[in-house]
Amino acid sequence: MIEGRLAEGERLPATRLLARELGLSRNTVLEAYEQLQAEGCVQARVGAGSFVAPGVVHANAAAPAVAPGTHGAAEASPAPSAFAERARRFHDHGAIPGRTVPGTRYAFQYGVPMANPTLTSDWARALSRAARRAPPAYPHVLGLPALREAICGYLSRRRGVQVAPEDVLVVNGTQQAIALAARVLVDPGAAALVEEPQYFAIREVLQIHGAALRSAPVDAAGLVVDALPVPAPRLLCVTPSHQFPTGALMSLERRRQLLDFARRHGSWIFEDDYDGEFRYDARPLAALRSLDRDDRVIYVGSFSKLMFPALRLGYLVMPRALARDFANAKWADDFGSPAIEQWALADFIADGGFERHLRRTAKALRQRRDALLAALHRRLGGRLEIADSNAGMHLVAWLRDADHAGCQALIDHAARRGLGLHPIAPFYLAPPPRPGLLMGFAGMPLKDIAPAVALLGQCMDEMLPAPPG
Question: Mind telling me which residue stretches traverse the membrane in this protein (predicted)?
């Protein structure tokens, strides 16, 4: 009736007939008719039957149905708010970079941690214990005290960061951390800075919150501090331990320059410690926050990338001057992160399971990185330039003899052959200086790396023939 398939005043089937057609008892149909009558959808006339009541059929009910999986007229309708309009403009859920097409044989997908059966079983036991002991109450808005204490110990041991539990805010991953930072520090229309290139999700969350983006380039020593704009944006978003996506490591001199810039200009630094744990040819460098003497760094870490994406937990180290504001923003967002997962994670860190997992994972990732580097140099050494790959779960391969159109043609051709490749271009605000591929290796089994590179070589031979000589 509401959809217009029954017109106003149209007679409904007799209850006996409808019960027989639907294979139901007549009592069931009678109850349904009585419910519709009570709701004002049906009028019963003694001796005549039941009819669709006036005013039930919607004025637009006769419009064509929207095909399943599409948004139909909603896409053309005005956004209900400025926030919704920005979200429509800056983010498309159907075009997230890095998604792998179903049916792909080999996928160099970035941002996916390594599958680990030992971790799966360890986490299942931790969750089971937590479910039995966690009280059925709302968690503290800052996070479970035991988890915040465990995070403080971990940061001291592994990242050189000395903080107290009251400085730590448990969040639902880096995505929520940047959203909270945007709400606390960036008014709509105000400037926020990102690296060029940068992680697309950081950029889009800032834009959705109304930030006017500024950028500064990255070179082999990380963010070029001398290129930061003045007047300075209030929020500076950086990935100093393993720049995403280039892999550059910010030098000690640049780190000191950045901290001095923030102090002089009153800016706040959002340090996303992306992949900071996984450094293969040397010890992991201490976080930028460990050098911060003026409390200008908002330090962010995520367990999703270190363990598995389904675990939507991370943490944010708050400068004391902003602690109340971040706590208020978190409370307004969700009252606090899931309690049972927090209990499980607190125990997992406290009993050493988390750091054992990191050591196992780093060893396995190094094997995969070495295998990928060897295969690329053996098959495509003259055709690719590999950026610094001493850390993280992906590497960047720049194409020597292709333009951007040729790179996209290669990606499309590889997809048809069952090989998932991802361009680096979506991570730039402006077109990158040359075409390149972002090649994740954490999610690819070791045995698949050589055949995947061999297939990449075939695709390049077919689509990007090497220049003569």
Answer: none
* Number of residues in the chain: 469
- pTM of the entire structure? 0.82
Spell out the domains of the chain, with CATH numbers in brackets.
1-62 (1.10.10.10), 106-112+359-462 (3.90.1150.10), 122-351 (3.40.640.10)
Averaged pLDDT score across all residues of the chain? 89
**Mind listing the pLDDT tens digit for each residue in 175-195?**
999 999 999 999 999 999 999
CA atoms in the 13 A half-sphere facing the CB of 412:
7
Taking 50 as the threshold, does the pLDDT of residue 40 lie above it?
yes
From its phi and psi, is residue 49 left (phi > 0), alpha (psi between -120 and 50) or beta? left
For 111-160, how does the pLDDT look when each residue is reduced to its tens digit (9 = 90+)? 888 888 889 999 999 999 999 988 888 889 999 999 999 999 999 999 99
Model confidence band, residue 57 (pLDDT cutoffs 50, 70, 90): low
Residue 109, C-beta contacts closer than 8 angstroms, at least 6 positions apart: 98, 100, 420, 422, 440, 443, 444
Lowest pLDDT segment from 24-28, 143-147, 324-328, 397-401: 24-28
Q: What pLDDT score was predicted for residue 1?
A: 67
Q: How far is Cα 190 from Cα 214, in angstroms, rounded to an integer?
A: 10
- Residue 18, C-beta contacts closer than 8 angstroms, at least 6 positions apart: 12, 24, 29
Strands 268-272 and 235-238: parallel
Q: Rounded to whole angstroms, how far apart are CA atoms 463 and 123?
A: 45
Phi, psi of 300, rounded to the nearest 5 degrees: -130, 135
**Of 353, 371, 161, which Cα lies nearest the Cα of 271?**
161
Under 8 Å between Cβ of 116 and 357: yes
**Phi, psi dihedrals of residue 120, rounded to the nearest 5°:** -60, -45
